[in-house]
Write a structure and sequence with these properties.
The chain is α/β, with parallel strands linked by helices. Helices cover 37% and strands 15% of the residues.
Length: 470
């Protein structure tokens, strides 16, 4: 099950219910410390050094437990009960040239600005230019709002305990939180808090994609149509089609105004020039992607007309992306039909006639409004992509990294989502299928980033769809 994204008050209530249920605080802290140690081990080489800074509260306790569970690492523990002396000890400990700093100064309960001495200590930790692992929340960050309280640790990674906190997912906190890991198996008991925002986990991907039938053939796994490409923008159509095949639909067809160019770049896909009888060919499709690369001057007027008619009338799943987001119509779509829109914040701002900053200030509200306006499932792309509808829970994707900030990554995602939804096996669980596609797209980018090599869209496509659920 996805994890609820919660407030500090909800976390405190969950903890209290756990203690009342007979679980000891000591046992939960031990589990949390072990989880921190595992993350620290993963972030450092064998024989490397870990400098741990432990504050007064529970985070300090977690830090001390982690320090006792770092085999093969040189540990230096700085007791930060007094900020001034801790500052001196910290600077001295840097002579050991540690590979990682563990930030256990303050946790999610911080409700005031840091004093000057703690600000100086935080600044020294940031200026050390050593990767920092923060426990539960970067010290100095408000875990409810994401605001900086005087100063904040800039973590390379944050391991938050129990469940994600609202503040860690705010755009203003992105540069301070770093990569966000959730240690959810720390022994908290009872029902988790209720939230309309849910954090996807690898466990939610179990059984995805479903096993293919022994006697299955290309007619069983669907036929994706892609309306895409124009002069100067043929690459978007090609990336979309190639990514679609990684979801293993039975067939992929591209319908395009730039037939010669795109046909010369694709082997597995069927490519059709745009013509007056193209609608008849599309009748064989089981899902459609509309939009990648339709920004050129040679897009025929009847292309938009036909695409809008399909959006309003067809029963097949339709994914609107890129250029199509500017002209697909508002309003009700056919009952029980699947409609998906995949805007980034700039596109969402155009669709809602506001500025991108307003979208980022409340991504949940923007997702809800778009879903209501277009009667569609919205995939609002970004640091933590949101998958949501006009009501019900929204899913927050934990995978992906800034390496996806390249032209073409959205075309790859649209194609992969389309390839998944073309398969009739996914028809009854479309939201899970969309979530799987988004999760896999980001997870693949994360796997590529581990290598530390340059990677581009062709590398992303080649790896997309592999079982990378570790």
């Amino acid at each position: 099950m996805p994890l609820p994204i919660i407030s500090v008050a909800q976390m405190r209530d969950w903890e209290e219910r756990t203690w009342e249920g007979g679980v000891s605080q000591k046992s939960v802290m031990a589990n949390a410390g072990l989880a921190v140690a595992q993350s620290a081990l993963a972030m450092t080489p064998e024989g490397g050094g870990v400098l741990l800074v432990a504050g007064k509260g529970n985070n300090g306790g977690d830090t001390r437990i982690a320090a006792a569970n770092l085999p093969g690492r040189l540990q230096v523990l700085v007791d930060a009960k007094d900020a001034v002396s801790a500052h001196r000890e910290f600077k001295h400990a840097l002579d050991q040239r540690p590979d990682l700093i563990v930030d256990g100064l303050f946790g999610v309960g911080l409700d005031r600005n840091l004093d000057e001495d703690h600000c100086d200590l935080v600044q020294a930790m940031n200026e050390a230019e050593i990767p920092i692992l923060s426990i539960d929340c970067p010290s100095g960050l408000n875990a409810d709002t994401g605001e900086i309280m005087g100063a904040s640790i800039m973590a390379k990674q944050t391991i938050t305990l129990g469940s994600p906190k609202f503040g860690l997912l705010q755009p203003c906190a992105y540069d301070f939180v770093g990569a966000l890991e959730v240690a959810d198996s720390i022994g908290l008991s009872g029902a988790p808090p209720i939230s309309e925002q849910l954090w996807l986990t690898s466990a939610d991907m179990f059984g995805m994609p479903p096993e293919r039938m022994p006697a299955g053939h290309k007619g069983v796994y669907g036929h994706l149509g892609i309306i895409a490409g124009s002069t100067g923008y043929h690459g978007a159509a090609c990336l979309c089609a190639r990514a679609a095949f990684r979801a293993r639909p039975g067939l992929v067809s591209v319908f395009t105004p730039v037939y010669q160019t795109i046909a010369s770049h694709l082997q597995s896909a069927m490519v059709h020039p745009w013509s007056n009888d193209v609608a008849e060919l599309m009748g064989a499709c089981t899902a459609m992607v509309i939009g990648p690369g339709l920004a050129g001057p040679d897009v025929p007027g009847n292309l938009r007309t036909l695409a809008c008619e399909m959006w309003c009338e067809s029963q097949m799943p339709i994914i609107g992306d890129a250029c199509a987001l500017d002209w697909l119509p508002h309003g009700k779509t056919p009952d029980n039909s699947i409609r998906v829109l995949t805007p980034h914040p700039g596109e969402a701002a155009r669709m809602l006639k506001c500025k991108p900053g307003e979208i980022q200030q409340d991504r949940l509200a923007a997702t809800r409004e778009l879903a209501k306006n277009y009667d569609a499932t919205i995939v609002l792309k970004g640091r933590h992509t949101i998958i949501g509808q006009a009501d019900g829970p929204v899913l927050v994707n934990p995978t992906g990294n800034s390496g996806l900030g390249q032209g073409g990554s959205g075309d790859v995602l649209a194609g992969f989502v389309g390839g998944v939804l073309a398969n009739p096996q996914f028809r009854e669980r479309s939201v899970q299928a969309i979530a799987y596609a988004v999760w896999q797209h980001g997870k693949t980018a994360d796997q590529l980033a581990v290598d530390g090599n340059y990677w581009g869209m062709e590398d992303l496509i080649d790896a997309l769809g592999n079982r990378v659920f570790c």
